[in-house]
Amino acid sequence: MKVCSNQKISRLIGWLIFLCIVLFCFNAVSATMQRKESRIEYKDFYKNRNKIDVLFMGSSHVLYSILPMELWSEYGIASYNMGEAQSTIPEIYWTLKNSLDYQKPKLVVVDLYNLEREEKVVEAKYLHNYTDTLPLSVNKVNMMYDLLPPMERPEYLFDFSLYHNRWTELEEKDFYAEPSVEKGADTTVMEIYPTEGPDLSVDKHEYNNLQTLGTEYISKIVELCKQKDCQLLFIYMPYGQADETVLKNANYGYVLSEKKGIPYLNLMYETGLVDYRIDCSDANSHLNPAGSKKVTSFLGDYIVHNYDIPNHKNDENYSNWHDDEKRYSELKKQRLHQASQLDRYLMLLNDKQMNAEIEVGSSCMITDTEKQLISALEENGAGIHDSVNDTVTIQVTDLESNQIIDTALFRDNGDGLYKMSE
Amino acid sequence: MLFNSLGFILFFPIVVFIYFCLPQKVKNYWLLVASYYFYMCWNAKYALLLLASTVVTFLLALMISRLDAKWKNVLVAVGVIINLGILAVFKYAGFMIESLELLLSKLHIAVFHVNFDVLLPVGISFYIFQALGYLIDVSRGETAPEKNFFRYALYVSFFPQLVAGPIERSRNLLPQFYEKHGWNDNRVKEGLLLMLWGYFQKLVIADRISTVVDTVYFDHWTYGGFYAIVATVLFAVQIYCDFAGYSNIAIGAANVMGFRLMENFNCPYFSRSVSEFWRRWHISLSSWFKDYLYIPLGGNRKGKPRKNLNLMIVFLTSGLWHGANWTYVVWGGVNGLYQVMGSVCKPVRDRMNRLLRNDETSLGHKIFQVIITFILIDFAWVFFRAGTIMRALGIVKTMLMARNPWVLWDGSLYTLGLDQKNFTLAIFAILILAVADVAKYKGMCIRKTILQQEWWIRWICIIVSIMFVLIFGVWGSAYSAKSFIYFQF
């Protein structure tokens, strides 16, 4: 009998070990097949558990426009950008709720873009950018049950069901994905798209009385922040395409602010903050890196003066952030080096850590946008010189080390001014 | 729920776990509840039909066992009429009405169009036949009538084989509900391995190549010639893997719980004649028709002409069983005709072989026979798959007039829904299938061979196989769970 029960136990142990190995292999395969965008964007978020003091929540207007590493460089603020494309307020609520399982921020900044929407989800596929790397939890399950119809939930709770057929697309980053150093932000869109700017004839007191799903979930966000003892700040990002309707929707933020007792920064009314002619990247008025740095610096200054957010620059617990800062600086230099068009190059030069000496040839055909970019750089201290040739020469210096980080020569190739190869 | 759905992946382990935890006397009740739940996931109200067929055949069988021969036949006839009546109403009524309307319109007789739109209850052809088989077995004295209604209801509704077979015989399955089924490591492992093999056939092969078949058969005017030939060959593989895959999952699932279901496929494409093919393909249905239709009609006991007539009746009926469409009848008829012609021409073939001094036992000759049999069977599959007679004839015509062999190597095959990687994977998987079938044909069971190896070799084989199916299987959010082909029957 004893032999029999020993055999049963050893067989049971055998089954359990086998199942564990199967699970292990499955996890490894699942991790390999998974799209890496979420991991690249959020790996640092989970690595820096309970270290983030400010969370930025919103749609793509936050994703592209608020740069945590710039905030760190300038103010020592430890923050993370949780913005995602097409995010609605319900999605923001659930992203925040799940994120608060891993961070205890002192301040949560919520963009009120999409406040007028009645849908819970506009483009479900973008949810994957956040949920793929989010560990399974009660909050994650509740998020899927609230946001999505039953047929769509499995692919978010069990994303291997979606990604297992990626075996035909596997590449190097599927085996080794280096986390992004930008702490959730995305500055890969480096275009310049001249825009008119918002119609500021609409007064701040003119608003559309919104009673929508968006406003309902704002109340939930307020409640959640109260429970978790986080301060809350509403913002509305600069939006060049804003017409009367958009502005009135945004102005409802003032009503919410008063009702809920939450400060509200409508950056569209901060005239002079961004130059819509050179700081936008596309027809939907997303900001390019130049515009983003301006907005980030402004927000950083506002946060430092209105909230008790510590400067962690000398904090030993944040020593890895200094390494990230170096990597971020290298990333910016690399992007600058790779920019082949003059307008993009000039846009990227709009950086507090760089200075430039620009020689403009008198016979160069410079576009209006390029002139505006040069003018903006001049206002920020760049040296602009004239020369008698058909090229534009730029020498870039790192302000901290005082070393030359790039020298570029641009000549017209028929399509515009392009960098000559070295 | 489909076997290749998330629902079943959750359902099955729960059912099995509870099954083994329960005391013996309630195990069958649990399986009955699980089986009805399984069926009701398709369409809850059609469980009433299942119940109706069960009740009718149960009561009739009890009555038959107590009556003399004259009344037995009457009651069997009543049972057959009621059950086939259910089948006729839910499966064939629309088809019969449409056919009648077409016939009358050809005769220029005006008719009032009747719209008969009834959702086909899934598995109806299978469980009706299984119940009828039991009734007839009882009337013949081959099986004792089951006195426990719940046990009989479980026999009819047993979930692994409820919706697409194998069509079990009462004398095989019913006694097993009296057996004690405890956990047996080797049996459970074998059952799970067989299920894994079934999932490989269905998810990796059948569902993958169905894309190519669908593309060509949907538009054979664009994809004619060698496209149609390739698609038809692939359809032969698809329907085999789809149906055999389902059967293997069913048999494996039953095996896990201790039940032994009959084998349904036995390397059918290695058959050397059409009649051999039908002894290896959908064995449960073929044997059902043999025992309950062919033999009662006289079988081969009343001379060759009658035998041939009986064969045609059986195959035409089998065709009709497969679907309410004339294409299935033609398909059945073609298969019947093959066997009739095979029988009629046998003396000629034998004489030819003698004249040409062919060695029928040589490997070359056997391979030749296998190839010819496959071509004949595959030709018939065109009618099975095409959907309409006209489309089937169009596809046959384009295959016979094929003049574009370059599509086989110029990359055109990768434009039919499967890119090069997926096409290559499909071919690789079909090669694995071929090797496995060759091994089985030679009497070697690969599953048993794996299970006899050292534990670490077993584990590597099994884990690699599981990962292979999970990665390369056609399942999940990017696809809708493709129904098994035979579910429409």
Walk me through this protein's architecture.
The complex is a heterodimer of chains A (422) and B (489). With 422 residues, chain A is an alpha/beta fold. Chain A has 16 helices and ten strands. Chain A is globular, with a radius of gyration of 25 Å. Chain B is mainly α. Chain B contains 19 helices and no strands. In chain B, helix 1 runs antiparallel to helix 2 and helix 13 crosses helix 14. At the A-B interface, helix 1 and helix 9 of A face helix 19 of B.
Secondary structure topology:
The complex is a heterodimer of chains A (422) and B (489).
Chain A lengths: L1 H32 L3 H11 L6 E4 L2 H4 L4 H8 L3 E3 L7 H11 L7 E5 L16 H4 L6 H10 L6 H4 L2 H4 L8 H4 L37 H15 L3 E6 L7 H17 L3 E3 L22 H18 L12 H20 L3 H8 L4 E8 L6 H12 L3 E5 L3 E8 L5 E9 L4 E3 L3
Parallel strand pairs in A: 1-2, 1-3, 3-4, 4-5, 6-7
Antiparallel strand pairs in A: 6-8, 8-9, 9-10
Helix pairs in contact in A: 4-13, 5-7, 5-11, 14-15, 15-16
Chain B lengths: L5 H16 L2 H17 L6 H20 L2 H38 L17 H17 L8 H9 L1 H4 L7 H4 L11 H34 L7 H31 L17 H7 L2 H12 L9 H19 L3 H30 L7 H24 L2 H12 L19 H22 L4 H6 L3 H18 L17
Helix pairs in contact in B: 1-2, 2-6, 3-4, 3-5, 3-6, 4-5, 9-10, 9-17, 9-19, 10-15, 10-16, 12-13, 13-14, 14-15, 15-16
Mean pLDDT across the residues of chain A is 92
Largest interface: A-B, 20 and 19 residues
What count of helical segments of chain A does DSSP give? Answer: 16
Shape of chain A: globular
Report the span from N to C terminus of chain B. 16 Å
N-to-C series of helices and strands of chain B: HHHHHHHHHHHHHHHHHHH
* Strand/helix succession of chain A: HHEHHEHEHHHHHHEHEHHHEHEEEE
Q: Please give the number of β-strands of chain B.
A: 0
The major β-sheet of chain B equals: none
Q: What portion of residues of chain A is helical?
A: 40-55%
Oligomer: heterodimer
Instruction: Return Rg of chain A in Å.
Output: 25 Å
Q: Give the DSSP E fraction of chain A (strand runs of 2 or more residues).
A: 5-15%
Write down how many β-strands of chain A occur, each being a DSSP E stretch of 2 or more residues.
Answer: 10
